[in-house]
Amino acid sequence: MEQKTLSQRVQAIDRKYLYLLLGVVMIAPLFYQEHFLPTFVSQEAVGIYEAVEAVPPDKVIVLAADYDVATMGENQPQLEAAIRHIMKSGKRFVILAQSQVGPELAEKGAETLAKELHKSYGVDWVNWGFLAGGVPMLKGLASNVRSEVKKDIHNKPLDEIPMMANVKDIHDVGLWLDFTGSGIWGMYVQFIYGPYKVPLGVGCTAVIGPQLFPYLDSGQLVGQLFGMRGAAEYEELNHHFGRGDRAMPSISFAHLLIIVLIILGNAGYFVARRRGGGAR
Amino acid sequence: MSHSVVVWVAAVCTLGIYTVLYRENRAYRFFEHLFVGLATGFGVMVVYRDILLNKWWSKMVEEGAWWWAFALPAGLLYYFIYSRKYVWMSRLVIATMFGLFAGTAFQGFANDQVPQVYAALRPLWLRVGEQPTGVMVTQPGFDFSAIVAAITLFAVLAYFFFSFRRERVPGMERVARGGRWLMMIAFGAMFGSTVMARMSLLVARLQFLLHDWLGAIKLPH
Lengths: 280, 221
Hints:
heterodimer; A: alpha/beta; Rossmann fold; 13% strand
């Protein structure tokens, strides 16, 4: 039986062992409690942070929780970091979503943070829930909130909620932040920033992150939270070591492992090819 | 370890799905179908609760907006798509909606792309006092980012220019090939981001299993 060379063996590693190695590399850093890798904050994350700071006290911030359980791993830490900042800076916010599960996920995060930061529903935030209708709904909401939203997520009429007394239309919104794993942010660029020039920021999954860079460049977006990295950056700006920050060492080591495996795989391939064998 | 039944169910479902990493198996198939069924059922419930009930029925019954009743026959016209004889009736409502959304799409396109065109036409030479990226320029000079953006734009547009044979214009073929290379670099960066996204979702599940379920690690909120 012909003995396999090292390069052939490298290329024939069973993927189950690679998954196992990846698991070990990602789990081990989670047991380490300290902040042992630095987080460099990008200008895009600073853009979101500064936009929140710049919202006047008489205006509200809209948090569009346009994600569901599939991408909550990335979007939930981003949203919670934003809520922490908004609550700490004494500003008020509204939750809405064009995704069915988003309002409940966002409400869960807001309620947990409200207990810690002593904030209350109806005074510091309101949840409008899931809003169906796409572009026509957004246009209606911009001209008259109550034409689209009669009751909040807890079935309470908006007129009975103290915070809603001065929230009538889009001119009462000082910042719109969308958290999403889909292309829905484009709808807000087209129908919220475009006609009304309401500052718009996006917390997105890393998959769609690169698509947003031209919009940052053109000024259509004030900032961006790029996947889990964006959540970690916002936590860094909040001086709060949260789930995003804790996840980043695992992700960094996983990336290192993948780079090493790509180099090994390609080196094995080229060595095998030079010897006239190996996979093609 | 968690005492919550919900957390246990979520943990078992998570592990069930991850068994596919070992190999395709019946447990994975079971949980996959369970998720598909749950998502479909949830979707039906949401359509009923948030659209049919809240957006349509309550408007008629509670607010007296009786004219919303006309939405029902108009919406039902869609189902004539299954009839060869009456398919023309479905086209009435499809054409109406098509026209409405085409107009909206045009407005959206203008709001989306016109600022992009403006942003693409940036000065290559910066004068003192200008703020191209929010930072005040103190020394006049070339804007490296703007030059890279301009070269990329030109090269990529050249690649997608099919109105004449590129070979006839000296150097055009090379520029177009450069455009292709630049696009490949962009696609590589996008794929790198996709890898990061997948790792992020995995680590979030690991945090759930180790913290929320097993209680083996401590996590802040």
